[in-house]
Amino acid sequence: MTPRVLISDKMDPRAAAIFRERGIEVDEITGKTPDELAAIIGDYHGLAIRSSTKATARLLDHATNLKVIGRAGIGVDNVDIPAATARGIVVMNTPFGNSITTAEHAIALMFALARQLPEADASTQAGKWEKNRFMGVELTAKTLGLIGAGNIGSIVASRALGLKMKVVAFDPFLSPERALELGIEKVELDELLKRADFITLHTPLTDQTRGILSREALARTKKGVRIINCARGGLIDEAALKDALDSGQVAGAALDVFETEPATASPLFGTPGFISTPHLGASTTEAQVNVAIQVAEQMSDFLLLGGVTNAINMPSLSAEEAPRLKPYMALAEKLGKLLGQVLGDQVRGVSIEVEGAAAALNQKPITGAVLAGLMGTYSQTVNMVNAPILAKERGLDVKEVRHEREGDYHTLVRVTASTPTGDRCVAGTLFGNSAPRLVDIFGVAVEADLAGHMLYIVNNDAPGFIGSLGTALGEAGINIATFNLGRRAAGGEAVALVAVDDPVTPEVVARLCALEGVREVVPLSF
Ligand SMILES: NC(=O)C1=CN([C@@H]2O[C@H](COP(=O)(O)OP(=O)(O)OC[C@H]3O[C@@H](n4cnc5c(N)ncnc54)[C@H](O)[C@@H]3O)[C@@H](O)[C@H]2O)C=CC1
Ligand SMILES: O=C(O)C(=O)COP(=O)(O)O
Questions:
Q1: Atom of ligand 2 nearest to the CA of 73
Q2: Quick check: helix, strand or coil at residue 289?
């Protein structure tokens, strides 16, 4: 059967041309409402999008034939990845095609802020010739604070260094070696806020980065700072930014991205010192040609040959190995995710051991899945293909160990993370050679399915704790699905892994932390 692809956002015509050349039927239908899209999506095997189409769980419910979503660009926050994965839909992006262009937009906005270009242009074209109104600042010798030093952030850094700026960066995954190589100084967020004359954001929007420039953070900035956001809306508290511009704490702000897009109204509009562009970061001819060609090639390879490149939710695999490795990779990714969520940026290295039946398999995809799970907590664009390279770039020491002998389990994957405070180890097995199960968490034996929303709780083993935990969750309206307990020794440290039906908010986490005997509470999602 001839595959059919729908291009639902404006894309360079080369994408459609490639699909047709490769024998794929293609329709370009843009500007549809979610309901209109839902009515037609069932006819397609591939969906090629940019940021306007929202591939929600609701839309995917109608996508009965969809096999692949191709994002001609980087950010996939408009795609419900868990929903796509649950429906067996591969989500691919083009992680590098528009990075230079977006970095250039950030630099353009930095210049626009420094010299008030939009206001000066409007005033001049209004016939005012206000030469004395527009006093600018020089960029040379100023400090640029980079929040996020990944692909785009590091290109911005190289351009800023060319402008003779000093660059400081906050990025938990930036290794000292990489910082040295980039010629920038790695600092903590507080230090960056204190020192930067300009701040530019280049992180994905995650639970850790949402509101990273909060009201409190803005209050800690150097007075007169200028801020640029070409990454994602939601990284800055927009109401607080408006107040900071009004008070003069922030001298200028340029936003390409907004919490709600399209942003057709905002309290920031009209504020002196505020500049905006309508999510234009990736909008150059060059970048659009790059991402259109790349996405069409990747999607065609997948639909016609089964080849997988730059998939966010699926490892690249050959057809023969795939069936045997699949459950191991699911287990490995869950173990990596568990470590990433509990240990955060403390992980300096990982050792991945396979034991028993697992030792007979190709270990690379298992390692890739651990790393993708671990680093997926911090970057949206990490996948099986780029996880090992990213790990290397970030100075993460990765070891693979193979034990042919069987231990307590016929097959086992053990992941040990090294952190500044010591090694932390988790392990899992496969039940019935297919169902991943956690069997050891930081030296405590448990038996848990890592799935959905969960809580990792460390507490002092004492009577009454389980009751008070159940009551606290009940009061918060959170239903417990399963409960797994383990402890090092009676009366010592106990660990609970609780599966819950709904996500746990930071407020509920704070309430649980306040329960007697609780040492640590981390919300998890798998
Ligand atoms: N405005 C636009 O049109 C465009 C926007 N973007 C957006 O730009 C952003 C960056 O893209 P890339 O550089 O390609 O991504 P990347 O994944 O290469 O880099 C992101 C960096 O953020 C860092 N990071 C993650 N959590 C952090 C935290 N809590 N604090 C500080 N740093 C943290 C990561 O370690 C990583 O180095 C993405 O959100 C992407 O969607 C990308 C292209 C165009
Ligand atoms: O690639 C990205 O992450 C972008 O934000 C670009 O968005 P766009 O393709 O221009 O709608």
A1: 1
A2: helix
Strands 46-49 and 25-28: unpaired
Q: Whose CA is nearest to atom 3 of ligand 2?
A: 75
265-290 per-position pLDDT tens digit:
999 999 999 999 999 999 999 999 99
CATH superfamily of the domain spanning 4-96+286-305:
NAD(P)-binding Rossmann-like Domain (3.40.50.720)
pTM for the whole structure: 0.75
CATH number of 117-272, picked from 3.20.20.300, 3.40.50.970, 3.40.50.720, 3.20.20.70? 3.40.50.720
Nearest atom, ligand 2, residue 52 CA: 11
Burial of 477: CB neighbours in 10 Å, binned 0-12, 13-18, 19+ = exposed
Helices (H), 53-175: 57-62, 81-86, 99-115, 117-125, 151-162
User: Residues near ligand 1 with C-beta < 6 Å?
Assistant: 73-75, 98-99, 102, 147-153, 170-173, 202-204, 206, 208-209, 230-232, 256-257, 279, 281-282, 378-379, 381
Tell me if domain 316-442 and domain 451-525 are identical in fold: no
Say how many Å lie between the CA of residue 126 and the centre of ligand 1.
Answer: 38
> Was domain 451-525 assigned CATH 3.40.720.10?
no
The ipTM, to two decimals, is 0.99
